[in-house]
Backbone:
């Protein structure tokens, strides 16, 4: 299950999120790599990225902007969720990166009962790739106000932009509670 939603949020809300993420008051933190553990193959290139964690793995709110982003989940059909993590990633152009490259493949969770939502803040290149048995089965281009909903156990990888200066995405990981 990989569902893509265009025009996911009302335009005004989408614009507010772009302004938030590109405001000089918004704190970004440098991470030396895109993920801690992932599959490195001949096309995978790990690169630094900037991150902002809203809700961390210790089940704690970690940002004064948490209330601004948690509302995004209200636009999904199921409303009761157990949060695991909310984090924004900002990827920049990376020297010698090509259209065949992507970040290390990974799963957000290794169990089937969690879901992920990627929300694209801005228009950019740098597709998100979804894999099955080492084969790309779906590519999703970053587009402002696009969301991708999928099971967290699906292997995927982001890509750095080549033509655009930045690629900004919010990553939610949660468990739906019936």
Residues:
């Amino acid at each position: 299950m990989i569902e893509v939603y265009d025009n996911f949020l009302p335009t005004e809300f989408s614009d507010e999120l772009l302004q938030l993420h590109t405001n000089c008051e918004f704190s970004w933190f440098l991470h030396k790599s895109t993920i801690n553990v992932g599959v490195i193959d001949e096309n995978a290139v790990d690169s630094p990225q900037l991150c902002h964690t809203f809700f961390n793995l210790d089940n704690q709110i970690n940002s004064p902007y948490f209330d601004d982003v948690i509302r995004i989940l209200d636009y999904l059909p199921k409303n009761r969720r157990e949060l695991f993590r909310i984090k924004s990633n900002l990827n920049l152009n990376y020297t010698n990166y090509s259209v065949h490259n992507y970040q290390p493949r990974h799963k957000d969770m290794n169990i089937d009962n969690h879901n992920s939502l990627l929300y694209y803040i801005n228009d950019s290149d740098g597709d998100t790739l979804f894999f099955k048995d080492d084969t790309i089965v779906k590519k999703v281009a970053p587009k402002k106000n696009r969301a991708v909903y999928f099971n967290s156990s699906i292997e995927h990888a982001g890509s750095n932009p080549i033509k655009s200066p930045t690629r900004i995405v919010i990553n939610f990981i949660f468990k739906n509670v019936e």
About this structure: The chain has two helices and ten strands. The two ends are 18 Å apart (CA to CA). The first strand starts at residue 2 and ends at 5.
